[in-house]
Amino acid sequence: MFDHIRIALVCYQVQDKYQHQTVKDEDGPLLAYLQEKGLNIHREIWNDAHVDWKQYDVVILKAPWDYHEQLDKFHNWLDKLQSHGCHVLNPVDVVKWNSDKKYLIEIAEKGLKIIPTLAYKAGSRIDLKQLSDHFGSNTLVFKPSISAGAKDTFKVDATNPEETFSKIGKLIDHQDFLVQEFSAEVQSVGEWSFLFFNGVFSHSILKTPCKGDFRVQHYFGGTIQSPLVNQHQIEQARAYVEKFAKDCLYARVDGVMRGDVFYLMELELIEPLLFLAFSSEGEIAAQQRYYNALIDRLAMLN
């Protein structure tokens, strides 16, 4: 039905630092599933100079995991795709907005809850006491506003202020960054991820850090579970998608529950793992939901 539409499933040049045995590759199985469904879809590397992007009608950003390390090049590449007439999923304007985590401030200004966050420009001077007073906590998280996978992310508390802050200071000189209240819920309960395809809820997971760490990513030793969630949780997560991820093939809403209230940590619209294999109904069911969402997007092009 849509085999005349040529589609690129965009990934990255594999690097060991992004790999970990606890989460198997989901891109290969997803690509095979979509091809078996009859789609004319091919895996490409976003910064491969040999790719002729003009041949593609649709470009899906699946796993360009290293985009944040070459952000200007990434944005220029997105512009070229548009100039070639490619339909990009997720939309280019949304992707550019989502590539700088200062979007969290805008989300909060629109009335949706986020983990309390302050944004600073590169070269700003930091007063740790003032920050602690502002957040009402001596435990804070510092991260670059342009980053992924917890790169250069630090937790500062009473046990490590001088040692860690000296490292942070060197990064602050050259990067915009965020300061956030540390969410104790990450260690006591875990960080939730809610997956939506074309605005429709698909599945959710709960990520927990290994003992002694605060980073939930699997390559830092974090674990992944698939507990049941209730409709109230889903609807709270959906609010971020409806307001900030319209026309998106996929969205991952990451955050914590404080009581029965959801607080956003990140809205992932560029290259999130979709955790298809962790769907409570199985990987095939999640792949089918992704396929259905993609078909709906393709139908809009005809």
Report on the structure:
This protein has 302 residues and is an alpha+beta fold. The protein is 31% helix and 24% strand. The strands form three sheets. The chain has a five-stranded antiparallel sheet with strand order 11-10-9-12-13. Strand 9 (191-197) and strand 10 (200-208) form a beta hairpin. The model has no long low-confidence stretch (mean pLDDT 88).
Write the topology of this structure:
Blueprint: E1 6-11, H1 27-36, E2 40-45, E3 58-61, H2 71-83, E4 87-89, H3 92-98, H4 103-109, E5 117-120, H5 128-135, E6 140-144, E7 154-156, H6 161-172, E8 177-181, H7 184-188, E9 191-197, E10 200-208, E11 223-225, H8 231-244, E12 250-258, E13 261-268, H9 283-299
Parallel strand pairs: 1-2, 1-3, 3-4
Antiparallel strand pairs: 5-8, 6-7, 6-8, 9-10, 9-12, 10-11, 12-13
Low-pLDDT stretches are none
Global mean pLDDT: 88
| Amino-to-carboxy terminus distance | 11 Å
Radius of gyration: 19 Å
* Helical content class: 25-40%
Structural class: alpha+beta
Morphology:
globular
Number of strands: 13
| Sheet having the most strands | 5 strands, antiparallel
Give a short overview:
With 302 residues, this protein is of the alpha+beta class. Helices cover 31% and strands 24% of the residues.
Main attributes?
four-stranded parallel β-sheet, alpha+beta, five-stranded antiparallel β-sheet, 13 strands, 31% helix, globular, 302 residues, single chain
